[in-house]
Amino acid sequence: MAGMETIAIIGGGASGLMAAVEASLALRQAGAVAHVALFEADPERIGRSILATGNGRCNISNACISADAYRNQAFVEQALMHLQSAYVAERGATSMRTLGTNLVLERFADMGLVTREESEGRLYPMANKATSVLDVLRSAAAELGVDVQTDKRALRVDAPAPGGAGCFNIRFADKTIAHAAAVIVAVGGRAASGIQLPEPLACSDMQPVLGPLRVEAQSAKLTRQLNNIRVRGAVHLERGGQRIASERGELLFRDYGVSGVSVFNLSRFAQPGDDLVVDFLPDIPPQDMERFMMTRRKRMQKLLGSPLALDRFLEGLLLPAVSAAALRQAGLRTGDWFTQEMIPQLCDMLKGMRLTVEGIGDERQCQVRRGGFPVERFSPATCEAFDVPGLFVTGEALDVDAPCGGFNLHWAWSSGMLAGRAAADRVASGEGVERDGACAEAAKRSSSKRSPFYTGDVNPSSGHDSRSPVVSRSGSSQAAAHAGGSSSFSRAGKPHPSHRGERGKSRNQRGGDAARNARHRNR
To answer: What's the CA gap between 520 and 136, in Å, rounded?
Structure first.
């Protein structure tokens, strides 16, 4: 590994893992030799955030991906177009015709993952467990020789010296430093604001979105009566009498406000003082409501032959608790006799129960954080910073977010693929030759006993050979060199024979594998 260049990836979540796999594949395809290192702050494992997605099932993507679902739509649209162009170049225009438009799924299929589609285009692994997604990513990373290190919280990334000389220095909380020719920042949530990047890159405040909404005290009196009750309908977000956004689906009342997928999506746009307007009967147009109510009243009275109390009139239409709460908000009582004069009030209540937004409810339930590094500072083709060549930012760390349904994970995978490939192309093409040499030289100065990209609290007497793969905290050794000219995965998802994992093999087994691999290369 002496003199070998490093692509350092900060963050072992969805975007970081995909970036590591993609960078390694691109290096193999280019026949380049480089070291891909993945640093994760979690002290125990990579990919923990993936396991929490989709209620443990991992809503990996969506069958109806469109850039207009995303914040900073123009940037995302260009990024997805560039990703498709990269795959046309990789696989050829002819084979591209046989591929689906969802290139994320194509890459996962290469790794062996099978998916299935559920309602509203949501895509899940066939095994219905998020662990199956993480398993194929971890296996691919291991088989491609990605060096994974946990318990490595990055604090700062220092840029190379002006003019391109030198290398990036990544400073960690444990006072160690990593040197790299290219750096991909793939952290999410609060972690993005905790990393200092070279000027002029600055992370804006990260605000939790895609979560439940808290309502003001007066509205909370109503939601408290309905705590943990679910209804289906439409919810509109209004500001100053103008409709901002609308969603249909499930609504969950909580003692502090409202939750559910429809509310999560509206939380991306909601501000304190906005109104949530709940429509319990979205399939009936407003102009048809009075006729619907009158027809319903006549049919019920014809059968029962007596006047109807309000609560009886609403039976079969709403849950009793919802009816009682809605009637109270409308200034009516459940035991009052239903009259024709009440119809306008009932129509308004059924089509427009109003709740005033105070802010985000339980932040722990928020699926993403809005903000991060502004997209204007980055190329949509590569996610590389315009002002700091060789530095890439992906996933949630960029100011991109989308509604529920697999869109945010799709962006994490896609941006990781773009950055991983671009970083590998940069290293493989020899861009920044002065920097490359300086990185290797910095590593030599750091310690002749360590891997060339890594310095810090080192024990010089440890006897660690700098030519051997880096040993992670867990003690597992992983190959770091990348060579060869073809993808490591067939369409069936099987690893190339020369890239199978080495873990758990005896010395004799590894020797036999080496001989077989030598014969394979000479074919």
So the answer is: 25
Residue at 161: amino acid letter: A
Cα gap 429→424, rounded to integer Å: 8
- Split at pLDDT 50, 70, 90, the class of 115 is very high
Q: Quick check: 488 pLDDT over 80?
A: no
DSSP-derived secondary structure letter, 182:
E
Per the prediction, the chain carries an average pLDDT of 83
Predicted confidence (pLDDT) at residue 380 exceeds the cutoff of 70: yes
Between the two ends of the chain, the Cα-to-Cα distance in Å is 26
Q: Residue 344 phi/psi, 5° resolution? A: -60, -40
Q: Is the peptide bond before 200 cis (omega within 30 degrees of 0)?
A: yes
The answer, as to whether pTM is greater than 0.85, is: no
Question: CA distances (Å), 491 to each of 95, 109, 277, 482, 484, in order?
Answer: 12, 7, 49, 21, 18
pLDDT of 238 higher than 60: yes
Beta bridge partners of 286: none
Instruction: Locate CATH 3.50.50.60 in the chain.
Output: 5-207+367-488
Q: Quick check: helix, strand or coil at residue 19?
A: helix
Hey, which CATH number is domain 5-207+367-488, 3.40.50.2300, 3.90.1300.10, 3.40.50.1820, 3.50.50.60? 3.50.50.60
Helix, strand and coil in the chain, % to nearest 5? 40, 20, 40
- Biggest alpha carbon–alpha carbon distance for the chain: 97
Sign of the torsion formed by the C-alpha atoms of 252, 253, 255 and 258: positive
Rounded distance, CA 87 to CA 106, Å? 10
Task: Supply the DSSP symbol for 211.
Answer: S
**Among 410, 332, 423, 343, residue whose Cα is nearest residue 382:** 423
Residue 507: which pLDDT band, with cuts at 50, 70 and 90? very low
**Which of the 8 DSSP states describes residue 494?**
P
Cβ pair 122, 58 in contact under 8 A:
no
Spatial separation of the C-alpha atoms in residues 463 and 461, rounded to whole Å = 5
d(CA 397, CA 374): 9
Mean per-residue pLDDT for 442-466? 41
Which pLDDT value is given to residue 143?
97
The answer, yes or no, to whether residue 471 has pLDDT greater than 80, is no
CA–CA dist 507, 5 (Å, integer): 28
Using CA atoms, how far apart are residues 257 and 212, in angstroms rounded to an integer? 8
What value, to the nearest 5°, has the Cα angle with vertex 10 and ends 151 and 123?
A: 100
